[in-house]
Amino acid sequence: MGRTLQNTMINLGLQNACDEAVYQLGLDMEELEEIEEDAGLGNGGLGRLAACFLDSMATLGLAAYGYGIRYEYGIFNQKIRDGWQVEEADDWLRHGNPWEKARPEYMLPVHFYGRVEHSASGAKWIDTQVVLALPYDTPVPGYMNNTVNTMRLWSARAPNDFNLRDFNVGDYIQAVLDRNLAENISRVLYPNDNFFEGKELRLKQEYFVVAATLQDIIRRFKASKFGSTDSVRTVFDSFPDQVAIQLNDTHPAMAIPELMRIFVDIEKLPWDKAWDITRRTFAYTNHTVLPEALERWPVDLVEKLLPRHLQIIYEINQRHLDHIASLFPNDVDRLRRMSLIEEGDIKRINMAHLCIVGSHAVNGVAKIHSEIVKTQVFEDFAELEPEKFQNKTNGITPRRWLLLCNPGLAELIAEKIGEDYVRDLSQLTKLHQFVDDDLFIREVAKVKQENKVKFALYLEKEYKVKINPSSMFDVHVKRIHEYKRQLMNCLHIITMYNRIRRDPSKLFVPRTVIIGGKAAPGYHMAKMIIKLINAVAQVVNNDPVVGSKLKVIFLENYRVSLAEKVIPATDLSEQISTAGTEASGTGNMKFMLNGALTIGTMDGANVEMAEEAGEENLFIFGMRVEDVTELDKKGYNAQLYYDRLPELKQAVDQIKSGFFSPKEPNLFNDVVNMLFHHDRFKVFADYEDYVKCQEKVSELYLNSKAWTKMVIRNIAAAGKFSSDRTIKEYARDIWHVEPSDLKIPPPNEPRDAGQDKTPNGTAA
Description:
single chain, alpha/beta, Rossmann fold, six-stranded parallel sheet, 31 helices, globular, transferase, Pyridoxal_P_attach_site, Alpha-1,4 glucan phosphorylase, glycosyltransferase, glycogen metabolism
């Protein structure tokens, strides 16, 4: 979520008033804003997408709730020591959190372990351990519409009789100390991005958020006029018409068997009715196609932790497979491929299959990704129910990612096309008429330059490196992962360095290369990549021949609040994943909206950015998905590229020989060995085209006016990538709800006076 203060002031239309008031108290608002901790309750794109979605849902007047876990410790703080990543706990609640309100009156029990008893009256889950879920509510204000939604985060609490209700030997002290075991559930965020680690505590977290949330939703449904009660029993027929639940990846997949458990075991609905309601309630968003990221929980673990849920999953699977067998008799291989249960050394539950079978809609997050989902990853399921599979291209909120982080550019745009674009970003197309306006071109360039100077000052303060603010700011910020190919960027840096040293008098377009991002603590290769970048920076930044032509900076502790500083100052955005691996990306959109040009592969949303702006206004290079597939068929041989490309050979040899690690010449052996022998992401295959494309970037940068005109064309084409558009599509195609343009009257107006007012104040 990042910081809340400035976003709240902007959405409430109070920023200028607050700035002025605080100034009159002799304080500086910007200084105050810097004190607030980031709420870092997710890992990367998936968590930030949820945050943008909450802002858009409130702005569109949807009655929507965001549910999650109130981690005591969020994503770790990253320190760089001697070039290595070191993790520190993120004690973000140390000074309290003024934005949250504990709601003990809505506390709910969540059950674990135990056993299942079957009788004539149905199944009973008994002898369980209970953990309490305490909700904390954070307000989510819409933009200038007097709407405030709720983000409800659950915290784990031990019940007061925890470990004391048992025929306890009287070790009261130990019993109280053991309360920590229950409360550990919400202690810390698992720091893996795009990687599945099958840990019991993680499964507990996943079920904890799901069980608490579903009880909350059902309580709200029963309290509403829709949960009509025939005598004692609630009638749930209207449930899917009143409730839509979107599964953000498979992490909350246990919601499907949990809702079935509530309907069948507790509310005593017949299975078929319960299943029909469940399917019509859930929809599933897939966020990755990397096999190592797909959740596959061991059956033994689920059986121990959630015995009743395993039985329900088996029943779902049995009926699912019976259906497949009736359509495709004797096709045992299809049954194996489509089963929710994977047989093997250890039996596992494929959570993505559970989500597909238990949902009425499945979507990818960019056109190319949704195609891959349909035709490759889940082709058997798409063949069965093609109408279930959709695309919903991701977006970003223009409130945080333009107004808040780049007020200079936001104001400049408003001067030209008015302020309405903030709620309707498609209006940015009006900027096309100013692409040849010399004054506007100069003003856009000026805003960028001011942002760069400000960020350069920040860098010099934090990193003690002198930055040339007229150099091209070439920025690559995102989680560190092999598929995102920070290594390819690193090879380009080394190549530029070698070219400068080969001919120091030759014209070189100065660059400041900024790379940032966190590596999962257990991801060895990602940590080596960080060390390598820092080792290269050490050599490059201290070579007198290079001087101010090339500087390399590794941005420490990349997070939302740092993104808000670096993105507006960026000239070149690096989006260079191997085609077919980045589901969408959203950083790419933030850079586009903030006046950076993109160098990228035809992957994720880059494809649609090129479609919107025209491919000639992005620097597109490298293999397409078809080329990658072709190369896989042929077999990727890294050695071939190394032998054919002298500059690649030189760069790799320098890494290999210890040129960047003279005290430990073998330090990067693992990296080099990976690049030659098991590089799934084919860095060498795209290196040549990448370097050539970078030469075109430098060439254009020399022509400031032509560069800025391309920037304007990009900003004018960024309208599609508002999360408002994304959410309108979810609302229309999946949730079947209508966004409301009505502005709720402010609390100081009598309710009837402000009724039927549209945002501009005229009668509807």
